[in-house]
Here is the input.
Amino acid sequence: MPRTQTTVGPIPERGTAVVVGASLAGLALSISLARSGLTVTVLERAVEQRNGGTGLRLWGGMGETVQRRDGSGIRVPTIASIASAGVPGPVGWAMVRRRLADAAANEPGMAIRYDTEVVKIGADADSAWARDTAGLVYTGDILPGDDGHRSMVRRSIDPEHPDARYAGYTIWTGKAPCDAAPGWQEGRNYMNMITLPNQDGAMIVGETQTNDEPRRYFWQWYDPTSDNYLREAGALVGSVSQYSLVNENSAASKYADIHRRAAHWPAPWDDIVRHSVRRQSVIATPIAEYVPRRLARGRMAIIGDAAHVPSPVTDAGFDTGLGDAETLGELTDHGVIGEQGLKVLREYEKQRLITAQRMVRSGQGFGDSLLDSANS
Here is the structure.
């Protein structure tokens, strides 16, 4: 039976995809694949409701639309438009994820399995598969991964270059209500970088407002002095970042150190940082960087943070991940079954690898200068 112009959903002859990871790029990719008519299964180890994360600068997405690639003839919002809700600017990570997750949940032919941890993956000439902790196996024609900076899929694609490496500095992140600095309000969305005294590094500071919360301050301290503390806390092992220290997981002595330093920082950020410290509402993230050498092998590929891990100072990781998702989704327009799936992933790597490499390297000069200033 010929397809009509009103049908939306999976097209069996175009194939299936198993996506490992439902972070931002993973959700964006899943939407894009579903728009090409693929049947998509997304495996995510976290529970559905996810909070936290830092602020994102959204550069695009002002209500643009594109035509679905499943033959329906329907125009839909671009992935960037979904992420920004049509209003580019600073926005919280959790808000962006919620928008993408809601859009993904409404895609026919897509199943998102939360609280599902993948323990093993593999592929052969005909298909790829992932097995979870319960022993269930999910099979697809392709297996893209957006499983974070310690990606399992990346280890399968480039086993000799598997890890994002510690860049030599930490980002401490916090937020505070506007009354933390009474009498000083810009009243607009913005982000600035300031250099701190006493070789303390630098800070990105700003003020933002989203649709469902009041305006607030946020700050990110780029700190080149906490390596020993991170190692003692277990957040850094060798040259590999292990995890972030979230809020009260940071030691009281470290909070006291930040509180002392903030007294010398520019107003109003001295008060705003100390407000976060007093409430133990601070996240410490050892910054890792990963410059990819390849993005695909056989029927597996990596996107987003699994494919490239830049310094946040680039302000480009999220947009690059969206570019990965949109490119790979567009390439699946003619399906992924058999040799076509291998061809699609080879072409994806060809189109995205240099972009990913340049983006990560663009932030390494900042890290070098930060470490030089701390050691001078």
About this structure: Residues 14 and 335 are 4 Å apart (CA to CA). The chain is about 30% helix and 25% strand. The mean pLDDT is 89.
